[in-house]
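Researcher: Go.
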Amino acid sequence: LCRKMSDRENILSDMKDNTQENNINVPSFVPFSRMNLSKPPLCLSPPFKAHMVENHLTTINNPTTMLRVNPKKNKRVLANGVSGHVPRRKQAQYIDDLEIKVNEIEAEIANLKQQVELKLNEKHSLLMERESLMGQVAIFQEKILVNDAELEERKVEVKKLREQELQMLTNVQPMSNDLNSNYHQEPSQTWTPTELVPDEEEMEANIMELMKMPENPNLNDLFP
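Model: Structure:
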């Protein structure tokens, strides 16, 4: 109740100040606490009541009257507004920074996607090259196996040929020893190349006989 009474007194004081500023003659009001309840209340006309309500609304909406009416409250409101504006400004700045970071991250993601696509293409090409190299390695391994088999065969053949050569050398060596021994023991019986070479006179006689023979000789003439 006391609070309501104080609010009523504040409203009445605001109305009084407003009427003084606007040069409106309004009868003075007595606070409710100082009113004589034994007397009947003053009856006000409806136009005057409407005027009072209008003035009360204008005083409430007018910041100058608010400053004049309650300066402490006004300071508190202004301080709250300033203190509230700072975090709002910080929040807006923070949101702007986040948007800038988001744009940078999106651009970096797009760049990384392109790099990933390039790396995937390089990986595919490297896999294809690896498959081709593996095929070539398999072919070379087969060739190496074939060459190893051929080399083993050649080694076996060489071994056989060496054995045959050794056998031939062992067989020829005693024959040569016998020939040398016979040559030294019986030189008259050894073969000489001069025995096969005829004399010049015999060769001329044979040539003359061949020239005297007809072109188609008879076998009986040749072999009587």
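Model: Residues 71-185 form the longest helix (115 residues).
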